[in-house]
Amino acid sequence: MKLISLLGATGSIGTQTLDVVRHHRQEFKVVAMSTGRNIDLACEQAHEFKPKLLSVQSKDDYEKVRHHVPAETKVVYGEEGLLEVATYPDSVILVNAVLGSVGLGPTLAAIEAGKTIAIANKETLVTAGHIVTEAAKAHQVSLLPVDSEHSAIFQALNGENKREIEKLILTASGGSFRDLSRDELKEVTVEQALNHPNWSMGAKITIDSATMMNKGLEVIEAHWLFDIPYERIEVVLHKESIIHSMVEFVDHSVMAQLGTPDMRVPIQYALTYPKRLAGQSDERLNLSEIGKLHFAQMDPKRFRCMALAYEAGRIGGTMPTVLNAANEVAVASFLDKRLSFLGIEAVIEQALERHHVISGPTLEDIKAVDEETRAFIRSTVN
Ligand code: NDP
Ligand code: MG
């Protein structure tokens, strides 16, 4: 029985993680979990999964929740609460499915406590990739990808020697607006942006997919997870989201991983690795039904956010921290209808341009730059 800590239980990845656990109760148990503001769902989950520990975001919610959970569930709150869940003594693996760079502290704490990390929370790797990967190495802890592209690469690489990799090829669906011109993008609404053609996900990542920042964040995530330089990470448009990503080796052999778009597959693989267990979905990949798969080159002018992410990644230091923090606040402002769709890339570019990069930043540098960038975007949007 594998005991799990789960951050972000009420989110899209969190609820799908619980669905995997629900289908394999002999294999997994969630002993500690965290939620944000959705305390009704959190209470329901607590009654179903009976964790020993539940963390909620605010003290007010803590007061509301603590008499509505099973007797065996201790309730905690705030950033301290996230740390307690991440380092819960019984758990062997942390599934980090929280949203945003708030996941950084708990990830580092879990690494120091020797937990295996199943990481969905890409913002943590973007904002402080060198610190997270160095800590994982120092504590001999595995970072297992949950993001479908990175899980695909991880599966394609199984047992291969890293020096034999020529390049990583990430696939991109193109998001909600893949067929619109830049001119047409000026007028798009929040409701249109939230309507992703292939995947059902949380609001922030759905917007990130529409701006193509998601692919940019994933390029940086791949750089850190697989230790591959940016010039050997490529992105190809693939609108069906059937090939989840590929690895080309030095002999030009290319390995791809395929499947229907179902996040429970990569989530489950991170939990069972190096084994596999039966899947839950009745839906199987049927290539003869699909008939054709399409691929096209990415246009960096059309998808400006992805180009900004490559640039920030190549410069390194605190640039990716700025990129991530600016994007988090810009996307939240777009969702609140205080910033236009193309305004997102414009304010991120401003934040990157004015930033004086710090190379080899410490955790304190990263926290300071993250806060300063958020304040800059907030004042710019206002
Ligand atoms: P959601 O918005 O659906 O869920 C986020 C979770 O984090 C929720 O449980 C939310 O709580 C919680 N949360 C948000 N902010 C805070 C905070 N400040 N403190 C504590 N908890 C907080 O996001 P997703 O599940 O879509 O994404 C989670 C991560 O996984 C992201 O990094 C995303 O990029 C990544 N990812 C997601 C994929 C997907 O298919 N959804 C695919 C690949 C990666 P509550 O809702 O209760 O407020
Ligand atoms: Mg992805």
Automatic annotation (TrEMBL):
NCBIfam families (UniProt xref): Dxr, PRK12464.1
Residues in 1-deoxy-D-xylulose 5-phosphate reductoisomerase C-terminal domain copies: 143-226
Lineage: Bacteria, Bacillati, Bacillota, Bacilli, Bacillales
SUPFAM superfamilies: 1-deoxy-D-xylulose-5-phosphate reductoisomerase, C-terminal domain (SSF69055), Glyceraldehyde-3-phosphate dehydrogenase-like, C-terminal domain (SSF55347), NAD(P)-binding Rossmann-fold domains (SSF51735)
Cofactor(s) the record lists: Mg(2+); Mn(2+)
Name of a matching Pfam family: DXP_reductoisom
Record domain DXP reductoisomerase C-terminal: where: 258-375
Species, as recorded: Halalkalibacter oceani
Annotated catalysed reactions: 2-C-methyl-D-erythritol 4-phosphate + NADP(+) = 1-deoxy-D-xylulose 5-phosphate + NADPH + H(+)
Gene Ontology molecular function, alphabetical: 1-deoxy-D-xylulose-5-phosphate reductoisomerase activity; manganese ion binding; NADPH binding
Domain 1-deoxy-D-xylulose 5-phosphate reductoisomerase N-terminal stretches: 4-129
EC number(s) on file: 1.1.1.267
Chain positions recorded as 1-deoxy-D-xylulose 5-phosphate binding sites: 122, 148-149, 173, 196, 209, 214-215, 218
Cited InterPro entries: DXP_reductoisomerase (IPR003821), DXP_reductoisomerase_C (IPR013644), DXP_reductoisomerase_N (IPR013512), DXPR_C (IPR026877), DXPR_C_sf (IPR036169), NAD(P)-bd_dom_sf (IPR036291)
Gene this protein is translated from: dxr
Protein name: 1-deoxy-D-xylulose 5-phosphate reductoisomerase
GO terms (BP aspect): isopentenyl diphosphate biosynthetic process, methylerythritol 4-phosphate pathway involved in terpenoid biosynthetic process
Protein family (similarity comment): Belongs to the DXR family.
Record keywords: Isoprene biosynthesis, Magnesium, Manganese, Metal-binding, NADP, Oxidoreductase
